[in-house]
Each structure stands twice: as structure tokens, then as C-alpha cells.
Amino acid sequence: QVQLVESGGGLVQAGGSLRLSCAASGGTFNVYAVAWFRQAPGKERKFLGTINMSGSNTYYRDSMKGRFTISRNNVENTAYLQMNSLEPEDTALYYCAARPKDSLTSPLDEYDYWGQGTQVTVTS
């Protein structure tokens, strides 16, 4: 069973960038597709994007295209979320999640394993 730990969150000014990491342990990383979600205070957790097992294919929520990029390094057992041109509306708790299937999908209940989240705060 894989365990996931997010890191890289913090405080950033609008227009800035952050790269979040999702470190996996306890399992073979390249047998899991990985996704990123976020949850703002008082709001539902939302899908941002996902990457397949090999890292050859990604799928993003429409509003994330162009600003956010998901990648992974299966040697280092880590997935990444690069976020550029950040806006105050991007302030949220960011989660990574994994599923032992190679298809790309967005619903939360399709993902079996979750990290604890990392906080991103964007100031204007």
C-alpha cells in the first residue's frame, strides 16, 4: 500500500510560482496513476489534473490548462505539480492522490490513496 506525502506549499505573491511534490513510499510507484486536487476553505475538493503510470500522458481540468503542469519521476518515486502565474483564488490545501489503474480520471472516489495535503496561500 502506497503512502503519499505532499510538500512545497507556502506563501507566495500573485504572479509567482510554486512546485509541489508528492513523495511516495511503501509501494511500487510506477503502478499508480497520480492526480492533484485542491480544497479551498468552505468549498469542495476539486480535481486539477492527473498523470498516467509512465508519465507519458496527462489530463487537466480545463481551467488549469496552461498554468499548471503535472509530471513525475518514477526513479525518485515523486510526482510534481508546477504552478505558474498564481492568483489569490489558487489559495487552498493541495492534495495528491493515487490509484492502481492507468486510465486518467477525475472523480475523487476513483482514487484510493491520499496524502495529507500542503497549504498554498497566494497574496495579492
Describe the structure.
This protein is mainly β and 124 residues long. Helix content is 0%, strand content 49%. The chain contains no helices and 11 strands. The strands form 2 sheets. Strands 2, 4, 5, 6, 9, 10 and 11 form a 7-stranded mixed sheet that branches. The relative contact order is 0.32. The mean pLDDT is 96.
Protein topology:
Blueprint: E1 3-7, E2 10-13, E3 18-25, E4 33-39, E5 46-51, E6 58-60, E7 68-73, E8 78-83, E9 92-99, E10 113-114, E11 118-123
Parallel strand pairs: 2-11
Antiparallel strand pairs: 1-3, 3-8, 4-5, 4-9, 5-6, 7-8, 9-10, 9-11
In short:
Helices cover 0% and strands 49% of the residues. The protein has 124 residues and is mainly beta. The chain starts with a strand and ends with a strand.
What are the secondary-structure elements, in order, as H or E? EEEEEEEEEEE
Helix content: under 10%
Number of helices: 0
Strand content: over 45%
Q: Overall 3D geometry?
A: globular
> Which structural class is indicated by helix and strand composition?
mainly beta
Arithmetic mean of pLDDT:
96
Low-confidence stretches: none
Report how far the terminal alpha carbons are from each other: 40 Å
Number of beta strands: 11
Main pleated sheet: 7 strands, mixed
* Alpha carbon gyration radius: 13 Å
